[in-house]
Fold this protein.
Amino acid sequence: MSGTLYNTDILRLAATIPHHERLVAPMGSSERRSPICGSRVTVDVDLGPDGRVAAVGLLVRACALGQASSSLLAAGIVGRTPAELAAARDALSDWLAAGQGEAPDWPGVAIFAPALPHTARHASIRLAFEAAAEAAAIAATADRATG
């Protein structure tokens, strides 16, 4: 793999994942696993009364790219709506699939530009965003059912 793929910034993010403990009784939870490398990311979320993410917890057992992606997701998830998380997931997936273009509108995600030609690594980068979008959707459904 390219030396620039696992650069200092990626490794720094991988080592500093915020919200790195699972929530005790989350409103929504989702785990995603990469079949290629076995990386796994679990995201728990609670939504506030305004329907935005109020609390998040993560369990990350992933490669450096999956850890770095989890770090970026965790740093920017609080205050987002389930729809915003679904849009972020889709934008990241589209950007990775295209292999070029401007990075999606999520703080710091452009750091993954060196991974664009490495399609086997894309699943690891998407894990946290996929799990977060699903967990938030589950939480929103649970909130509507109990609210």
Observations:
- The mean pLDDT is 93.
- The CA atoms of residues 52 and 81 lie 4 Å apart.
- The helical segments are 8-14, 64-76, 82-98, 122-146.
- The first helix runs from residue 8 to 14.
